[in-house]
Amino acid sequence: MSEPVDVVLIGGGVMSATLGTLLKELQPDWKIVTLERLGDVAQESSNPWNNAGTGHAALCELNYMPDPDDPSKAIGINEQFQVSRQLWSSFVDRGILSEASTFINSTPHMTFVRGAKSVAYLKARYETLKEQPLFRGIQYSEDSRVIHQWAPLLMKKRRKSDEPFAATRVPAGTDVDFGAVTRQLFDHLASSGADVRLNHEVKKLKRRSDGTWDVLYRHRVGSTPGSLNARFVFVGAGGWAIKLLQSAGIAEIKGYGVFPIGGQFLKTSNPDIVAQHQAKVYSQAAVGAPPMSVPHLDTRVVDGEASLMFGPFATFSPKFLKAGRWTDIIQQVRLSNLGSMLKVAVTNLDLVRYLVGELMKNRDRKIDSLREFAPGVDGDDWELIQAGQRAQVMKGGKLQFGTEVVSASDGSVAGLLGASPGASTTVSIMLNLLRSCFPDRQDEWEPKLRELIPTYGGLLNDNAELAESTERASAETLGLLT
């Protein structure tokens, strides 16, 4: 017989951790159970070495603003990150999250481009963004001396006779350890009465006649089967979300497919090198490359230690997770999504060529790519690490590079598909999920949500004074004032 609960969260990542913590604040009487198939939480995309930890706010990511005269998407991403910062600030004040420096650190965000056309684009982007309240303080330079002050490693041994270059810099950027956020939120959930069960692999979702869901699982230690009966199920299982939503049989998942793309980074923890680069520097993606493959040289702070990461270099595996199965890519195929997936294969030949080129790169060629970015580096100081698997959404014959929540019409089950900007905008994604899946509770929950997120439901960029005061307040709580 299935054990009755209010909420089942599938997957031990930052999405489930955030949703579970919000629900615990809003409905402390609800019984919440998390099922994670691995032996610990934050082992896939939320693990700090499996993502860039950028704190995506569109401060440096050019793919959020392809038209330098249209900042709307960049503003939208920044608005969402500000919501995340406000909630994290409230969680720090309440002791739900530990000292802020354990998961977020001040790290300037930069963009660096080469070539006359790219320089003209970046300057036009800067002229547009400097007028936006959420991007105040953005700086621009084509002067090698100024850029050297911002990021010495970037300019070391770069010849002045090379093609023109330019950079922007936002001092208020951050580095975020989403693994630490995830672990701390789950620790709080467990101490608050929620049940976090590790090594529990969900096999199937089955709807009962009363609209509730039987969540069938197997304990991976001993292979003991079991089931829970839940009023609401959230599938935050990364690439495996599509498999579980398909098993639920909801009409809304029809037509969806996912395409897995992996990645590697070059990493160094040599303190002499790390000291020369205290920033996150993004550039432009190669032709045909997905937005998630934009080259960047990043400061990372994990467990108090600073390192540098450069990449990503795309890899391919048919697995939807690093700890997935080789048959994942085949098991998702249905009559309802086969046509769309075939169309994606035919219409994305540039991506195919890019992936083939990436797979042919050996370590030396990857070091060469790093030297194009930072000419003075010594390859012996860098090691290759395997990053996470990203399952990009395929829908309607198109390959998408954002995140998308798919939920049943009655709101009883929902899952998250896709990747970037992902973790940085988790809070906004989960707030939208709460609105769509629990519409009848919004009036009841709104006062608490406004307590946790002072600007809940509003926009900061429309009010320069509010934007500045809100950012300053969260920066003060999170120790980010510079």
TrEMBL record:
Name used for this protein in its record: Probable malate:quinone oxidoreductase
Keywords associated with the record: FAD, Flavoprotein, Oxidoreductase, Tricarboxylic acid cycle
InterPro entries: FAD/NAD-bd_sf, MQO
EC number: 1.1.5.4
Alphabetized Gene3D superfamilies for the sequence: D-Amino Acid Oxidase, subunit A, domain 2 (3.30.9.10), FAD/NAD(P)-binding domain (3.50.50.60)
An example Gene Ontology biological process: tricarboxylic acid cycle
Any Pfam family hit: Mqo
Catalyzed chemical reaction(s): (S)-malate + a quinone = a quinol + oxaloacetate
Origin species: Microbacterium faecale
Recorded GO MF terms: (S)-2-hydroxyglutarate dehydrogenase activity; L-malate dehydrogenase (quinone) activity
Superkingdom assignment: Bacteria
SUPFAM superfamilies (alphabetical): FAD/NAD(P)-binding domain
Pathway where it operates: Carbohydrate metabolism; tricarboxylic acid cycle; oxaloacetate from (S)-malate (quinone route): step 1/1
Keyword Flavoprotein: yes
The family this protein is said to belong to: Belongs to the MQO family.
Cofactors (names): FAD
